[in-house]
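pls design
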């Protein structure tokens, strides 16, 4: 669980923030139905989670209106998305995991991996030769 200024944030709540962030990158307004569709859950489940996130000061949401991330919510969402992206790239490009499995596994791992481990994965991914990063070529060590 991630600590916020107003309590702890579960992996599930981080997933909601990440979903809001990703939807907001593609369209002007984020609505409950958009989150429910993306996460493949019911709209009442989304509404309940939004109430919790609003109490923690991470989202702004008026009933039947669009959802906005607060600055703190945006910061957390961007960090969760970053963790997810790095883990997914590591799984697909380095370990050769298929994209569907890598996506599912990265979603679970992003909440559990330590900041130290993630930082080292990022450095590892950034120091790979550019050609390898772009093509996904896995180099064997001799």
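designed seq:
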């Amino acid at each position: 669980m991630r600590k916020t200024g107003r309590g702890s944030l579960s992996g599930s709540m981080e997933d909601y923030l990440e979903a809001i962030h990703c939807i907001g990158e593609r369209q002007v307004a984020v609505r409950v139905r958009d989150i429910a569709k993306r996460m493949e859950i019911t709209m009442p489940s989304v509404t309940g989670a939004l109430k919790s996130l609003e109490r923690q000061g991470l989202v702004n949401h008026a009933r039947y209106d669009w959802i906005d991330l607060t600055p703190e919510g945006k910061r957390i969402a961007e960090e969760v998305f970053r963790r997810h992206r790095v883990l997914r790239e590591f799984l697909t490009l380095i370990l050769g995991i298929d994209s569907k499995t890598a996506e599912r596994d990265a979603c679970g791992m992003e909440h559990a991996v330590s900041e130290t481990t993630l930082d080292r994965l990022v450095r590892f991914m950034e120091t790979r030769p550019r050609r390898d990063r772009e093509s996904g070529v896995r180099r064997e060590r001799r």
